[in-house]
Design goal:
Strand content: under 5%
Distance between the termini: 50 Å
Number of strands: 2
Helix content: 40-55%
Radius of gyration: 22 Å
Order of helices and strands: EEHH
Strand order of the largest sheet: 1-2
Largest sheet: 2 strands, parallel
Number of domains: 1
Shape: elongated
Structural class: mainly alpha
């Protein structure tokens, strides 16, 4: 089973067995934890939308080409910008 370990270096106390860098302070735990969750959530969202796009034959990581393959969507964007849609 694959897994990931995320070390948050702000602990209530320093454990004897821990070889990771850490500080005995709980002041920044919530801030760091919140930042990590936001990063993971953003990554999950990107993964979700990329997967969704691939169901319809698109790749969101591909370079946008307004004069080639993406000509149709470019027309729609221009119409929205002009207020026609």
């Amino acid at each position: 089973m694959a897994g990931i370990y995320i070390h948050i270096p702000f602990c209530k106390h320093k454990c004897n067995y821990c070889n990771f860098y850490s500080l005995a302070s709980s002041k920044r735990i919530a801030e760091v934890s919140s930042s990590i969750v936001k990063e993971l959530k953003g990554g999950f969202s990107a993964f979700f939308w990329q997967t969704f796009a691939r169901l319809f034959g698109y790749d969101l990581k591909a370079v946008y080409d307004p004069h080639g393959d993406d000509q149709g969507i470019e027309r729609v964007v221009q119409m929205i910008d002009a207020g026609a849609i």
